[in-house]
Design brief:
Blueprint: H1 19-31, E1 36-40, H2 56-61, E2 69-73, E3 77-81, H3 86-92, E4 99-102, H4 108-115, E5 121-124, H5 131-144, E6 147-150, H6 155-159, E7 172-173, H7 176-179, H8 183-197, E8 201-204, H9 207-214, E9 216-217, E10 230-234, E11 240-242, H10 250-257, E12 261-263, H11 267-276, E13 281-285, H12 291-299, E14 303-307, H13 310-316, H14 320-347, H15 355-367, E15 374-375, E16 380-383, E17 407-412, E18 414-416, E19 419-420, E20 423-428, H16 434-451, E21 454-456, H17 461-473, E22 484-486, E23 495-500, E24 513-516, E25 519-522, E26 526-529, E27 532-539, E28 548-553, H18 571-588, H19 595-604
Parallel strand pairs: 1-5, 3-4, 5-6, 8-13, 11-12, 13-14
Antiparallel strand pairs: 1-2, 2-3, 7-9, 8-10, 10-11, 15-18, 16-17, 17-20, 18-19, 21-28, 22-23, 24-27, 25-26, 27-28
Helix pairs in contact: 4-5, 11-12, 14-15, 14-19, 16-17
Length: about 600
Amino acid sequence: MFEAHFQTFEEPESGVALTARLAAFREELLRRKLTGFVIPRADQQQNEYVPPSDERLAWLTGFTGSAGMAVVLLQEAAVFVDGRYTLQAAKQVDVNAWSIQSLVEPPPETWLADHLKPEDRLGFDPWLHTSAAAERLAAACAKAGAELVAVDSNPLDSVWAERPAPPLGAVSIHPLNYAGVSEADKLAQIRGEMERLRVDALVLSDSHAVAWTFNIRGADVSHTPLPLSYALVPKHGRPQIFIDHRKLSNSTRNHLEVSADVQEPDALTSALANLAASGASIALDNATAADALSRLITAAGGKPVRGADPVALLKAVKNPVEIKGTQTAHRRDAVALARFLAWIDREAPKGKLTEIDTVEALETFRRQTGALKDVSFPTIAGTGPNGAIVHYRVTRKTNRRIALGDLLLIDSGAQYEDGTTDVTRTIAIGEPTDEMRDRFTRVLRGHIAIARAAFPDGTTGAQLDTLARQFLWHAGLDFAHGTGHGVGSYLSVHEGPARISKLGTTPLKRGMILSNEPGYYKTDAFGIRIENLELVVEAHIEGAEQPMNEFETLTLAPIDRRLINTHRISKRELKWINDYHARVRREVMPLLDDEATRVWLEAATEPLTQPQ
């Protein structure tokens, strides 16, 4: 009945089977007179999803998470992961060969400073690290009396005999009825920012920035319509785009050549060197520009100016066409979600469904909209203890049957040409325990606190993050991930620079789209997360003495009423829940064409009342 086209459930290679690769890699390091090497989970542009040809960390260690690093020394090796992936890494990595360490606190550089010896030579690939990351590695080496060595070619590639070829996904035009702003107008905005920065040129090292600027999309990585590419925008004259010509049809090439000269990727280094030779100041993005670019500019006589990519903020603030498209995408997605949630409620209590069944069903319901281009990330569908693994990905080996008494956590999203979605719901299968209802209600109250927040213009995500955690903190609980991330417009589902977290220092601007997803995870028992996407809009507050903002919720899907302890919520929170469910019913019901889902939605959005 159901199948997944965009997701697989095969178990990645892991554990002891990969130990031979580690041994071969150490032999290659010895041959190159290196005593260690750093392997980030990264491609040249620090993308979240990287092509198979750049999955070096997974190939060597077995760890498949979206963030991590490994350090191989001749006698020791460590894999560094953040709080989302602690449980996953322990299952995927051979702990006899690798120790599992923190990626954040303390950072890998602390481990390096403790484990490197005087005269050690630690290698790194400058195309896979930003300059800031390279400087942190250099400082750790200096502390230990060791040397950091930038290699000309990656030693891991020398032992990866069956390394896949780089991707050649076809590039498509993202038309104005979705993009909203022409390439010429975007380039004018970018040059205005360059004037402010007082630079002669700007390197777009983030493929998302290239895609946004020139209104193109691609198919080089999973789940994000990304054309791997670079661009160089001078203060005067035509920009240059560096992209493999085999990805371009005649129409996409003609589209690009209206705004820029189109070059092969190899031409980037010579174009940069020629520009730098004149002493030019060239802006580089701190977050995505490879250290190799900074080294190249400096060596050629130019001045690298490192900072935040101005395109990231321009891209994050959605224009009216993008906002309207995103709203349309969420209404379309809501139909698929309603059909899925109704199906779960009918079928899961029978005891026959598995996690894979739910992933396949949800993708199928989305495909039946006729507009799905891809899922925006691999669906997280964890029942019972698997729900406590924050970024769990079900495989045929881990696939668990959904049982009465379980909580099912399902976090998923879709890529439509008019918008990108991301939504999490936690569903009670049968009767939940008092503990489950208590934890769910605390998470929901935090979610509502974000959704109802009013905040002055210029407020950052870090200032809002506490709102989502306060009710968990009252019980001595917390969650080990940010409360929210930015979301693109038919681009990355995880888009910077704004986020709601203790690290979110970018002011939230009207037109930004962010997730609101507090959670709670009880190891080996259950997981809870409630996620909607929110649009930053102007708040109209009578008597306000300064510009104020608030959130408009984009996601339209019922929240499981069975898990809400109405004794523990305020009247204002109850009103928010009932108003939200009334809106879901009002906007989604007319779009449903099957009676079973209409009946389910009617019941799922019934107003809650509080006991007298």
